[in-house]
Amino acid sequence: MAATLTMDEVAKHNTKEDCWVVLYGKAYDLSKFAKVHPGGAKLITNAAGMDATAAFDPIHPKDIMEKLLKPDIMKGVVDPATITEAHKAKGPAAHKPAPKKKTKSSSVDDEVMEEFKKPSLNLMLNTFDFESVAREVMEPQAWGYYSSGGDDEITLRDNHLAFQRITMRPRILVNVKDIDMRTSFLGAPASLPLYFTATALAKLAHKDGEVGIVKAAAKAGVTYMLPTLSSYTLDEMLEARSPGQLMFAQLYVNPERQRSEQYVKKLEAAGVKALFVTVDAPQLGRREKDMRSKFTQQGSDVQDGDEEEGAVDRSQGAARAISSYIDAGLCWDDVPWLQSITKMKVLLKGVQCGEDAVMAYKAGLGGCVLSNHGGRQLDTSRPGIEILPEVMEALREAGATKGDFEVFVDGGIRRGADIFKAVALGASGIGVGRPVLYALASYGVNGIVKMVHLLQDELQMVMRLSGTPTIASITDKHVLTTNLCDHIVPLPTDNLSARTYESLRPAARL
Predict the structure, then answer these.
(1) Most exposed residue of 98, 109, 228, 468, measured as fewest CB within 10 angstroms of its CB?
(2) Is-contact 7 22, C-beta < 8 A?
(3) Residues with Cβ < 8 Å from 376, sequence gap 6 or more?
(4) Three-state SS for 379?
(5) Which long-range contacts (CB under 8 A, 24 or more apart) does 78-84 make?
(6) Does the pLDDT of residue 38 top 80, yes or no?
(7) Which class of enzymes does this protein belong to (predicted)?
C-alpha cells in the first residue's frame, strides 16, 4: 500500500538532484527522468517539491506516468488537506494573446505586423484553409510538432503531390442522380471510406484533444483510430463515445510487453474493432521543426550548452524522446504473440512495399496500412498512394482477396479526389491525420465536422463527374497512373499546398 505523505514532506525534495513532483495527488521522484524529459529538465526541476498538476494536465494524459515509467518512482499519495496554493506550480497562461501576422502596409511597401483575425468557420472551403488558420492560432511548439517531417521533408511534401500524378479517366452517360458513399471496414459498415488516423498529443491543438476528436468522429459518422500516445487517458476517450461508434486503436509496442498486453486487453473489452500495430517507427524520426522549437520553448533548458543537464541530448524534440518507450526489437517473430493476446483483428501500420504486405497476409493478419508516418520517419520513402498499386498486385499474385486482407492508406490526403483515387487503386479506407488536428486547433469539434463535410462534398462531386454512383463502382479503370512513380513529371503549381507549407530554414535564417 502506498505511503501517505504531507505536502511539507514532499517540499523537502526540491533540488534537481532530489526532485519530487506531485501530479494528481501522487508524489513522483523525477530526479533521473528530468534529465531525459523531452522539453528539458528545467520544466520539471522548476516544479521540484511542488504540485505541478496544473502545468502538466493541459498536455499529458493522467495515466502517462503509469503507462511509461517504472512503478518505483511513485513515492506515495499526498494528503490533499496539506496542499496549499503556495505549493502549486503555475500552469500555462489562461489566455493566449492574439497572434500576429505579417502583411503589406497599405501606404508603404514594407511589411508590418497586424493582429490575426480568425475567419468564421463558414469561410473554410478546403483542408488547406484549416491548416492556414491553425498555423496562426497554435503555439509555436505545438505547430512545430504537428507540421514537422523527417529531415528535408521530401516525403512530407510528396505525400500530397503524389496524388496529382494520378489523373482522372471519367465515364459518361451513367446514372449518377443518387450517390452512395457507404462502404465497410473489416466487415463493419462505414458511412464513407474515410477514417481519422491516430495522431499523438491532440491537446497541443485544443483543450478538448482526443476527446473532441472522438465526439467529432461520432457527429460526422467517421471511424477514429485511438492513439497510444494520447493526451487523454484511454478511459476518458472511451467514455466520450456515442453508442455503437466504430473505433480502431493504434499500438506502439512497449519494451515491457506486459504493459502492451494489458492495454490491448482493455481495448478489446471496450469493443474496439481492430488493432493497428505501428511498425515503421523502431526509432522516431529526426524532425527539425520540432527540434528547433525545443530551443525556443520558454522555461526549457535545451539551449543551455554543455553544462550538466544541457549535455543530455534533448534537442531532438518531443518525437525522438518518445522513442525510448517503443520496442525497437519488434519483428516478424512477434506476430504470433500479437495475435495471441487479442481476438481483435490485428493489422500492421506502416507497410511500405509489396513483399511486406504479402508477408503480413501469409502471417494471417487482417490487413495493413500503407503509410510513411506522415512523412515524419524515413525521408525520401515513397508515399502510400504510390505504393498502393505495387501492393495490390503483389497481394493478387499471392491469392489474397479483400475479404481476407484489407489495405488502408494514409498520408497527404487533402481532397475528396484523393479519397477517390485511393479507392480506385484498391484501398478499403483512407486515413487523415493532420487535417483533423488543424481543424481541431482552429475551430474545435465543429471544425472537424466541417472539414469532413467538405471532403464528403468533394468526393460526391468527383464520384458524380466520374460516372461512379457507388464506392463499389470505383475501379482502377477510372484513373491513370502512368506518371505516378515518375518524380520528374512537371505539374502545375499547387498554390494552396505551396502557400500553407512552412519551409524548413537553416539556423542563420530563422
Answers:
(1) 109
(2) yes
(3) 148, 149, 150, 156, 284, 285, 287, 319
(4) coil
(5) 78/4, 78/5, 78/6, 78/7, 78/10, 78/22, 78/25, 78/26, 78/27, 78/51, 79/4, 79/5, 79/6, 79/7, 80/25, 82/6, 82/7, 82/8, 83/7, 83/22, 83/51, 84/7
(6) no
(7) oxidoreductase
Q: In the 8-state DSSP scheme, what is residue 180?
A: B
Q: Bridge partners of 408? A: 369, 429
Dist. CA 452–CA 404, nearest whole Å: 29
* Rounded-to-integer distance, Cα 187 and Cα 405, Å: 11
Domains and CATH numbers, the chain: 4-87 (3.10.120.10), 145-282+326-502 (3.20.20.70)
Q: Rounded to whole angstroms, how far apart are CA atoms 169 and 173?
A: 14
C-alpha dist (Å) from residue 1 to 8, 77, 100, 171, 298: 21, 10, 52, 70, 38
What are the residue ranges of helices labelled H in 285-426? 288-296, 317-322, 335-340, 354-362, 384-397, 416-424
Task: Check: CB of residue 252 under 8 Å from CB of residue 226.
Answer: no
Distance in angstroms (rounded) separating the CA atoms of residues 227 and 209 = 11
Nearest alpha-carbon partner for 313 in 30, 38, 19, 510: 38
Distance (Å, rounded) from C-alpha 58 to C-alpha 44? 15
Cα separation, 322 vs 109, in Å, equals 46
List, by residue number, the catalytic residues.
252, 280, 373
Residue 453 C-alpha cell reads as 463535410
Query: CB neighbours of 504 closer than 8 A, spacing ≥ 6?
Result: 152, 153, 288, 289
Q: Is 80 exposed, middle or buried (0-12, 13-18, 19+ CB in 10 A)?
A: exposed
- Rounded Cα gap, residues 181 and 190, in angstroms: 9
What are the CA-CA distances from residue 456 to residues 45, 127, 193, 246, 376 (Å)?
48, 12, 10, 18, 27
User: How many other C-beta atoms are found inside a 10 Å radius of the C-beta of residue 308?
Assistant: 12
- Residue by residue, DSSP assigns 94-162 as SSPPPPEEEEE-SSSSSEEEEE--PPPGGG--SHHHHHHHHHHHS-HHHHHHHH--BTT-HHHHHHHHG
Task: Tell me the pLDDT tens digit for each residue of 418-472.
Answer: 999 999 999 999 999 999 999 999 999 999 999 999 999 999 999 999 999 999 9
Q: CA 443 → CA 101, 120, 205, 450, distances in Å?
A: 19, 9, 10, 9
Res. 225 pLDDT band, cuts 50 70 90: very high
Of residues 323 and 457, the one with the higher pLDDT is: 457
- Closest to 503 measured CA to CA, from 102, 134, 132, 148: 148
> Does the predicted model carry a pTM greater than 0.70?
yes
Range with the poorest average pLDDT among 166-175, 223-232, 275-284, 305-314: 305-314
